[in-house]
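Justification of computing resources. Each target in the renewal requires a structure prediction run like the one illustrated here; the chain below, 146 residues long, is used simply to show the kind of job we budget for.
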Amino acid sequence: MDNFMSLKIKAVSENEAFARSAVAAFCVGANPTVDKLDDVKTAVSEAVTNSIVHGYENNPDGVVEITAILSGSTIHIEVTDTGVGIADIERARAPFFTTKADEERSGMGFTVMESYMDSLSVEPNEPRGLTVRMSKDFAASKKATE
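Resulting structure tokens:
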């Protein structure tokens, strides 16, 4: 591990942009391309928004924790909540699945995260909540675009 950061935010939508920006600022130390940094920002936005909207069901008493570890050229990110969790994670990861269709949710959050990051895992916490783990190798991404 070369460097790490940890951030706890209140589960309110106004903090999603702050979390995204904080992780992006942390990533700058790995010298990512703008496109790859945008990928990380998008994935973090999706994970934090899912925690707020689905995990805590917009209850501002919740706390979302974001941890980022920079190891060499790879960023490893965890977004954790202690909300209601997901009964069927595989079903929830399917494109267009949403429990909030009445709120115009597209059901593409996990699909977006998976498409922008090199790896993604979604795991239940005990006794409640969820952790989303994702990573991106900035060096491998650079070689593909150079």
